[in-house]
Amino acid sequence: MTPAVPVPIEYQLIGPTEGGGVGDLLIGLDQKRQHEPQQIVGDLLNAEISEKQARSIKYQMT
Fold first, then answer.
1. Considering only CA atoms, which of 13, 43, 9, 39 is closest in space to residue 25?
2. Does residue 25 surpass a pLDDT of 60?
3. In this model, does residue 33 exceed pLDDT 90?
4. Considering only CA atoms, which of 42, 45, 14 is closest in space to residue 28?
5. Cα angle vertex 25, ends 23, 28, to 5°?
6. Is the predicted pLDDT of residue 42 greater than 80, yes or no?
7. Residue 55, pLDDT above cutoff 70
């Protein structure tokens, strides 16, 4: 049997919490889905890399 492929999750960056920490924010974003904080951070980093690559391609095309 092959393992199930995880479904990508979309997150919206909304900034740090009032206390300046992002840990509570990341945990708060995921209370219903129960994903590991490491997975959330990994997904956010992948989204940031994809955005930077898209901006780079756009810059090269202009």
1. 13
2. no
3. no
4. 14
5. 110
6. yes
7. yes
